[in-house]
């Protein structure tokens, strides 16, 4: 008797789920969700996606390609359409990290984006649905040193260093030489050396090992300057 009730309850739940419109689920979601056709044209975006993509108010995105939307990330259209094609060809979908000026504040930051194929009843692919969420970096250094990987933040935990000093610190604590840092940042070797001396002074240390320990203490080892990010799309192959 109990088994019958259990089966009946499960059947009712599944029956109810089958009748829930997909758009209704997306419409009430707080994270960006959307749908694109198999021609890479936008069909639907919930409000979170509209805000995420920084779509201008009043702009009709329906039927538009990525390249036709008046936003900074539209220059990534070829990579985004390649993502669409990859998702359409796999039942597992496709994943990428998109780094661009997203959101109403247009802040350069990486976002994880996954796309999945949408099928017609005959199995034909009609397009893709996608969602996005803020991407968390993880410290590879911590991982290989057998400690719990920490999340890399894009907000500095202390405010005593200049933006340029923070860039130098991010390379120095990974044990790049002053010459290597100079090459990465297009600075002179002498400039980097002078900046490092100033950094040591602020951190109240006299050595690289002391700076590394200071950064671990205040959390700078888990920080990445936004200036080192580039607008691009990285595929998970």
UniProtKB/TrEMBL annotation:
SUPFAM superfamilies: C-terminal effector domain of the bipartite response regulators. It comes from the Bacteria. Residues 154-219 form the HTH luxR-type domain. InterPro entries: PAS_4 (IPR013656), Sig_transdc_resp-reg_C-effctor (IPR016032), Tscrpt_reg_LuxR_C (IPR000792), WH-like_DNA-bd_sf (IPR036388). Keywords: DNA-binding. This is Helix-turn-helix transcriptional regulator. It comes from Symbiopectobacterium purcellii.
């Amino acid at each position: 008797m109990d088994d019958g009730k259990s089966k009946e309850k499960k059947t009712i739940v599944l029956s109810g789920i089958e009748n829930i419109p997909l758009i209704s689920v997306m419409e009430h979601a707080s994270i960006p969700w959307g749908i694109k056709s198999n021609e890479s044209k936008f069909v639907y975006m919930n409000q979170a996606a509209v805000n995420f993509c920084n779509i201008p108010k009043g702009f009709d995105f329906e039927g538009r390609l990525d390249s036709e939307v008046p936003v900074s990330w539209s220059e990534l259209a070829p990579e985004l359409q390649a993502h669409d094609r990859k998702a359409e060809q796999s039942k597992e979908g496709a994943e990428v990290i998109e780094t661009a000026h997203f959101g109403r504040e247009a802040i350069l930051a990486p976002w994880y984006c996954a796309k999945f194929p949408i099928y017609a009843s005959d199995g034909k692919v009609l397009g893709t649905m996608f969602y996005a969420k803020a991407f968390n970096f993880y410290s590879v250094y911590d991982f290989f040193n057998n400690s719990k990987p920490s999340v890399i933040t894009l907000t500095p935990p202390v405010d005593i260093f200049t933006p340029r000093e923070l860039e130098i610190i991010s390379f120095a604590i990974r044990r790049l030489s002053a010459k290597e840092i100079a090459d990465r940042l297009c600075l002179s070797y002498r400039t980097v050396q002078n900046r490092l001396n100033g950094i040591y002074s602020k951190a109240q240390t006299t050595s690289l090992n002391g700076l590394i320990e200071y950064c671990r203490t205040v959390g700078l080892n888990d920080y990445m300057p936004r200036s080192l990010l580039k607008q691009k799309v990285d595929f998970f192959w």
